[in-house]
Amino acid sequence: MTARNDPGTGDVTLFHTSQLDHLINMARENSLWYLLFGLACCGIELIQTGGPRADLMRFGAIPRASPRQADFMIVAGTLTYKMAERAKLLYDQMSEPKYVISMGSCANCGGLFQAAYSVCKGVDKVVPVDVYVPGCPPRPEALTEGLLRLQEIVRAEKWGLKRRPPKPEGVEIDRGATT
Amino acid sequence: MTTDGIHERLKAVFGDDVGPLSEAKMDAFALVKKERIVEVCRFLKTEPGLELEFLEDETAVDWPKRNVIEIVYHLLSYRHRHGIVLKVELDRAAPVITTVETVWKTANWFEREIYDLFGVDFTGHPDLRRLLLPDDWVGHPLRKDYQDAGGWHGISSFRENPLVELRRLDEVRRAEAAKLNPPPPPSPPPAAPPAAGPAVPPAKA
């Protein structure tokens, strides 16, 4: 199992941190909604992984069309430079915490079309990737394994150490003063 | 009517502006002089008995050794079930030709694609701009002398050899792990060889 966050020495403000972490993460990992981002042939395999035989929805992973409603993004297919910009835009529109699964050779490294002039050699040139699923295209079982690895990553997250981001300097936030 | 028949009719009207029919290895083609291409196309489309109303494809071929760019027109007739291929040779240094968009509207996007990838200028085209590549792309990639631009908008086109990359990442990860858990001091006699091999597979896929 991967431990993404090292157990540091942050203050323990939550009682039973580890059990609460476990509960929160169990809820989160079983309802990871993904942004449909099928670009090419891997998109067909993504659709089929959502099909009846290897069902992604039984893990709670529902496809969403909008990045605002998605927890993670499955980049399935060849990215051209033109599309890579849009992929970055969509990734930026997702809200934290967000993850990326890179599906297939083309999203991992440019794949079969690595020598082409217009192909971005891997989606990790524009967004940070959590799980790489190799294959051309990966079988539904392989993509399911990728989702399970992502669930492992989610399971290992620690919430007691997370803080609200600090207020930016020089900015007064008016929370509706009452006098 | 066979392709030979179409070519006979063409020769009868246009004479020397239409070259001889090539051998039918794939599709028999005829070279046309570039000044008469629009008239030839209009004739082929409207002449009763020929009526090649379908421009199946219009594409280009770059021949740097012959110093030409060829524009290739694949014409087809649904009504008479015959077809012919025409070719026009353009000077590679300044490839310009009149558009056939006035004859077949579908040539609009075909010629945009040729402009995008070969840099051929089509005079009279209503909307000549790039079709497939981003609008601010520099260069025409399907020319034989195109050099890779190194990326676009900050996305670099270089990718490290994965064997080199993974080995480097392994070293980095091992260094970080060693910093967190410092290894025990080595025993004085040359004892067992170090445990970890060079290719420790990472935990993630």
Outline:
The complex is a heterodimer of chains A (179) and B (205). Chain A has 179 residues and is α/β, with parallel strands linked by helices.
Low-pLDDT runs of chain B? none
Strand order of the largest sheet of chain B: 1-2-5-4-3
Biggest sheet of chain B: strands, sense, closure? 5 strands, mixed
Beta-strand proportion of chain A: 5-15%
Low-confidence stretches of chain A: 1-16
> Counting H and I runs of at least 4 residues, what is the number of helices of chain B?
4
Number of strands of chain A: 5
**Quaternary state, please?**
heterodimer
SS-based class of chain B: alpha/beta
Record field, number of beta strands of chain B: 9
CATH architecture verdict of the domain at 3-145 in chain B: 2-Layer Sandwich
Distance between the termini of chain A: 53 Å
Keywords:
heterodimer, A: 179 residues, alpha/beta, five-stranded parallel β-sheet, 5 strands, disordered N terminus, B: 205 residues, Beta Polymerase, domain 2, five-stranded mixed β-sheet
